[in-house]
Please model this.
Amino acid sequence: MTRLPECMVSRNSHSSDIPNYESKAFGARRAGEKNDRIVLVYAEPDEHRALNICEHLRRLNLEPWMYRQVLPGELLIEKTEMEIRKAHRVIVCLSSASSSSGFQQRLIKKVLEVSLEKTAGTIYAIPLLLEECAIPDGLGRLNPMNWFKQDHQDKLVQALRTNARTDFEENQSKQSADQPLVGLNEDPSCESTFGRGLPTSQPEDSFLPIAMFRDELANLYCWLSPSTWRSLPKEAQDFLSTLGVKLEPILQIVKPTPVPLVIGFECLAISCRGENFAAICRRAKALAINPGHLRLLLMLAAMKTAEGLRNRTTLNGHRGAKHLVFAINLDPETLDCCSLRGFLRRHDFIWEGLNLLFEVSEQTSASYLDELKNLKVEFQLRYSADDYNAWNGEVKDALKRSMEMSKIDCKTFTEVMGMRGQRPKAAITQLCRHQIPGKPLIIEGLENESHLDFLSQNWPDADHSLLAQGYLVEPGSPWNMLTHDLKKFGLPGGYILAA
Model:
C-alpha cells in the first residue's frame, strides 16, 4: 500500500498549536498603544538628504524608519514593504532620481496600495519634494511638501502629528461597537454547520478567527455603488465587509516528489460566521446586492488572502510562497459585471504580483467566449478549467488551449472511483477523458486514502502531473503554521488564514 504523504494525514490535534503571526507580519498594535511610526521612502542617490530629514525629525522627538535599519541577511524589499504597512505615516521623498529608481517605484506602488485601506481623511502618504521634479501618478492628488522651504518643513511636522489615532485602534473601536450579525440558528436559509459540534466553551455566535479586510471591502463597495452602500443597514455593511476566503490545498500526487509538494490553493468563499458560498449568495440576494458586485468583493478577499499568505511566509524566511498558485473563481456572474475591468485595473498592484489562475466555471456558455478571450489579451489573465467534465463542447473546443489546468468535480471523481475494483483500466480512462493533453489534471474531493493508493499505482507515466485537492489534503509546512483547520470549528474542512 502506498504510504500517505505526511502533509495529507489529518492531524486535528495539532491545530490548536498554531501560533498567531498577525503581529509579526503586519505589526498590529494593541488598542491604546502609541503608534507614531514614520517610514521614509527614497531613492538610493538621495540617502544623504533622507538622513538629514531623519535627523531633523529626531530632534523633534519623531523617530523615522530608514532602509539602513534592515539587518544583514534580512529580505530588503519584503522588510521595507512590511514597515510601510505598519507605518502611521509614510514620507515619499521625490527627486529627479526617483523616476529611474525601480526600487523606489515598487515601494511607491506599495504605499498607494496601503493608502486605499486607510479611513477617508486620514493623512498617510506625504509626498516630499527634495527638489523641483515631477510627482508620480497616484501621489499627484496629495498636497506635496517642499523640503527646501522652511514653512513647508513646519507643515510637514504638523502633518506627521495630525490624526495620531492608529487605524488598528479605529478598527478595534468599530468592531467593539458593531452589533453581532443574526445568529445562524436564527437564519433557516444558512447551510453552514458553524456553531454545531463546537466545544461548549465557545458561544454559538462566535466569529471564525479569519483574516478579514474590512476597510478594503468597504472601500471597494463604495467605489462600485456609493449610494447602495450608504443605504445598506449596519448589519448588511458588516456582513459584506467581513467576507473572507477558505483555502483548499492542491497537492501533486503523480509524479511523486521526494517531499510532498503543495503547488497552490483554491480560494473559496466563506463568511466570518462560517457560511459557505451558497449561503452567502442567498443572504446577498435577500439584501438586493448586485451578484457581480458580490463576486468582486469575494475576488478582492481572495487576492488579499493570497497576498497575506505569501507575504507572511516570505517574512518568516520561506521563499517558496512566490511559486504558489492561487485559483480564484471566474463565473458568468463575474463576467457579466460591468465593473470587472475597472476592478482589475484598480487592484492590479495586488493580482499582478500573485501567481493567479482564474477558474472558468462549467456554467460558462459560448456567449462568453469573446469576453474571456478579450480579458486574456487585455489583462494577460491566466485560466484554469473548473469542472471540465461538465463543460459545453463548443466552449471546450474554443478555450482548451487557453487553459493551464483542468479539474474534475467531486461527484464525477467519486463515481469513477466506484468502478475501480471491477474495471480499474476503465476508471483511469474515464478520468483521462477530462484531461487537457499536456496539462495538469486536478481531482476534487480526495477524502479516501485508498483512492490515493489507486491513483498513484495506476496513473499512466506521462509528462504531466496529477494533482488533488480535498479534505484529505493538508497544507503541510510552512503553510500549516499560518492557517487554521476549519474542522476544529465544526466545519467540514479547508483552512483559513489566521487573523
